[in-house]
Amino acid sequence: IRISVELHKGVANGGMAQFQEMMRQQLESSMHTELEKLLDTTTGAEREVSRKDFEGFKNLFHRFLQVKGPSIEWIKIQRPPEDSIQPYDKIAGRGLPDNVADCLNKLVVVKLNGGLGTSMGCKGPKSLISVRNENTFLDLTVQQIEHLNKTYNTDVPLVLMNSFNTDEDTKKILQKYTHHRVKIHTFNQSKYPRINKESLLPVSTNLSMNGQSAEGWYPPGHGDIYASFYNSGLLEQLIAQGKEYIFLSNIDNLGATVDLHILHHLVSQPNGKRCEFIMEVTDKTRADVKGGTLIQYEGKLRLLEIAQVPKAHVDEFKSVSKFKIFNTNNLWISLAAIKKLQEQKAMDLEVIVNPKTLDGGQNVVQLETAVGAAIKCFDNALGINVPRSRFLPVKTTSDLLLVMSNLYSLDAGSLTMSPRREFPTTPHVKLGSSFTKVQEYLTRFESIPDMLELDHLTVSGDVTLGKNVSLKGTVIIIANHGDRIDIPAGSMLENKIVSGNLRIMDH
């Protein structure tokens, strides 16, 4: 009651702004009390880790309460200056130095490994799904780095940022790489409390990850890498070993291999002009309309995500003509700069509010951040417009079909477009809901079709494909409800529509 009387006085005396400020302080105070109670449910090392996590969460919650409406004023948005996004050809045109090994020894490869394979119907970490010749995402990553280390006689380590969802399973599997020529380190993303949408207080009553309680926690998006990498002590350790830059990417982006030209560009800058952050961007197609883009804002290069765009401007944001490029999330970042920004507490990343509904129907909010949003905090940041081949994410079984097919050849863990494909664009593949789960998808293809000359494939309904099927041009296969279509072994479908009970029409 005392609170409401105080607030009532506040409104009477100082108007709305003061009332809102008192409300904010009250919410923060309640949050801090609840977090202390949560800390008291554990002891020792776990308590210390959670205490550090909660420091980051308090900061995020504080900023969440401050934000009023979109964080971007649309009229202030400008196109980035010409020299702030360089074409890849210009960077590669400078050639490579004699001492490639010296450049590589300054590099650490970091992969975001916090995600589960649930969207593809798989249990456990997504990085452990087989994508090509029984190789998982993690296998391919290790092979790539090992190949570099052997070729140039270097010591490029691999760092995995795990989440509490993936850490245990990943660590078990890492034992199989002990005899590979690549040092592997891991650290964990923070564990933040989901908050009730109405009360804005944590839904969990203890730190345990068992049963019901596990639903109360989440890993707060990849923007958390800066704090958790720093808090883990690994960042300091790598700097002490003479490492200068990380190359960071999503583990499910099979195009994100170490590029020696970009690395050389970074390490060859004069000292006063050292570039602390490079974001690889690539040209937008209609499939990428939601991807974040680079803008110039208040004199700084900045990442603009769809979530920050006022509703009235969403269509403009999606247009390919005004915003021509999008962020691949392949990033090259200075270790020393991350350390400095963390020490100064100067990482001011936009808060992403992600609403969720728990199994019991409770509405909660997750506060998250994105790693690329930090571009505005770093000096001499640069975008490089890279070929589309550096962006080959596997988010669905449609993507999986592409990377398993003869469109790509595999060499030392790297996938490259087959030289036998006449045009370098990737076909558009849409597999229906019967193909969503990896296990089911695998039973529907006796072998992966020949797709070298494919432009577009749509498959919907109960469809199976026999061995050695060849698909060319535009192929659409639709089994109506209750029907089943089996494409016989050895079939060649070129510009065909197959529907109903196996009627084949030329398209």
UniProtKB/TrEMBL annotation:
Binding-site residues for substrate, renumbered to this chain: H222
CDD domains: UGPase_euk
Pfam families named in the record: UDPGP
A Gene Ontology molecular function term of the record: UTP:glucose-1-phosphate uridylyltransferase activity
Residues annotated as binding UTP: K126, Q189, G221, D252, K395
This protein's record includes keyword Transferase: yes
Function: UTP--glucose-1-phosphate uridylyltransferase catalyzing the conversion of glucose-1-phosphate into UDP-glucose, a crucial precursor for the production of glycogen.
Family assignment from sequence similarity: Belongs to the UDPGP type 1 family.
Name assigned to this protein: UTP--glucose-1-phosphate uridylyltransferase
Protein source organism: Sander lucioperca (Pike-perch)
